[in-house]
Design a protein that fits this description.
By secondary structure, the protein is an alpha+beta fold. It has 2 domains: 10-155, 2-Layer Sandwich (Phosphorylase Kinase, domain 1), CATH 3.30.200.20; 158-301, 2-Layer Sandwich (D-amino Acid Aminotransferase, Chain A, domain 1). Helix content is 30%, strand content 25%. It contains 8 helices and 18 strands. Strands 10, 11, 14, 15, 16, 17 and 18 form a 7-stranded antiparallel beta sheet that branches. Strands 3-4-5-9-8 form a 5-stranded antiparallel beta sheet. β12 and β13 form a beta hairpin. α2 (107-122) runs parallel beside α8, α5 (220-227) crosses α6 (229-252) and α7 (303-312) runs antiparallel to α8 (325-343). The N and C termini lie close together (9 Å). Residues 73-76, 78, 85, 127, 154-157, 159, 263, 265, 274-275 line the site of adenosine-5'-diphosphate.
């Protein structure tokens, strides 16, 4: 799909939500016919596409469902319906541990559709119960249309307070630790590895789940001290099994999943895969044909954001600045591309 069509599609969908104002900036006039379910039957519409200067009318930064208890994470709004949760991915984006003021159009939908894709492919116990959010007792007036594409009905579990990270390549905090001690999370690795090297075999590198700020890498022994040796063993083997399956699939699509983070929950004695799964937010995706050990690899999705923030002079220690439209637009395109490449489906 070319860029123009994508921009056009944003407009059409946001117009469906009634969110594009007349006063917005003219960006693109479509020359071809873009079918959409909102079209009047039998009519072929020539569209003029408008995009707001702040690129914000198409994004959902925060969902609202009156009267339902909600917990807002960095990206998700999680509504509590007793033994089920409504798991809503907003378009919020975080970088350097801050939520940025801009949303990224379609990001919530991309994250939701990638997780759904993996849940159906992986064949492990997971928390997704239904895509049909009207199976929940939503209060009258809930904006079902804007929530549906970005939401899942999931099983409420008791969250295991460990970030279950699998790494197949040396990057990020793993690379930092290796340079100091030739280990990652205390696991000894061969000498002579360089940044982005492929590891001899994937490793389980748990981290604490910090309520705010940075998660901290911990050893397997420390993990056992927190959640017990038996559950730690189970999580290690599940993490490596799921990561292995993910990598196998991604390899057929020309993608390296350099590392990823899973979360697990407990429900009636079962260990269940929860949260988001192998999305660009929870993983490092690298195009296989660009991979070159000895240097950092460009981030598939957030590189424009990171590069721009680095150049902006922001101190990373105060509320971050607004991203320019161009960065927002290109980031949105990258998320959509990640979905299309990974799943082989059109977005
Ligand atoms: N099935 C589940 N049961 C209970 N909590 C869950 C479930 N799946 C995910 N969660 C929690 O919901 C939250 C998701 O929101 P998110 O924006 O990703 O938060 P965070 O900022 O912690 O990454 C996480 O705290 C995650 O642990
Ligand atoms: Mg999260």
């Amino acid at each position: 799909m070319n860029q123009a069509r994508k921009v056009a599609r944003f407009f059409v969908i946001s117009q469906g939500n009634g969110r594009v104002a007349e006063a917005d900036l003219l960006l693109f006039r479509s020359t071809d016919y873009l079918p959409h379910r909102l079209d009047p039957p039998g009519q072929r519409l020539q569209r003029v596409c408008l995009l707001s200067k702040s690129a914000s009318p198409m994004v959902l930064l925060q969902s609202e469902i009156p009267g339902i208890p909600v917990r807002r994470g960095k990206v998700r709004d999680v509504y509590d319906f007793g033994d089920r949760l409504l798991f809503v991915a907003t378009d919020r984006i975080s970088a350097f541990d801050y939520i940025l003021p801009n949303g990224i159009p379609r990001k919530g939908e991309v994250l939701t559709r990638i997780s759904r894709f993996w849940f159906s492919l992986l064949g492990v116990d997971h928390h997704l119960l239904s895509d049909e959010i009207t199976s929940l007792p939503l209060p009258a007036g809930t904006d079902v249309e804007s929530l549906r594409p970005r939401s899942m009905v999931v099983m409420k579990t008791q969250v295991v307070p460990i970030e279950c990270v699998a790494r197949g390549y040396l990057s990020g905090s793993g690379w930092k630790e290796y340079q100091k001690s030739s280990t990652v999370c205390g696991i000894p690795l061969p000498a002579g590895l360089v940044e982005s090297s492929r590891l001899p075999a994937p490793i389980f590198t748990p981290a604490t789940k910090a309520e705010s700020g940075h998660d901290e890498n911990i050893s397997f022994e420390q993990t056992s001290g927190i959640i017990g040796p038996e559950l730690s063993e189970t999580l290690r083997s599940l993490t490596l099994k799921i990561y292995g399956r993910g990598c196998e699939h991604a390899a057929t699509r020309g993608i390296i999943i350099a590392d990823t983070k899973f979360e697990f929950g407990l429900r009636e004695g079962r260990v269940i895969l929860i949260d988001e799964v192998m999305t660009p937010d929870s993983s490092r995706f690298w195009p296989a044909n660009d991979w070159q050990p000895g240097r950092g690899q460009a981030s598939f999705d957030k590189q424009f954001v990171r590069d721009w923030l680095e150049r902006s002079g922001w101190d990373k220690n105060s509320p971050p600045p607004s991203l320019p439209d161009e960065v927002v637009r290109r980031t949105s395109e990258r998320y959509i591309e990640a979905f299309e490449i990974l799943t082989g489906q059109a977005f």
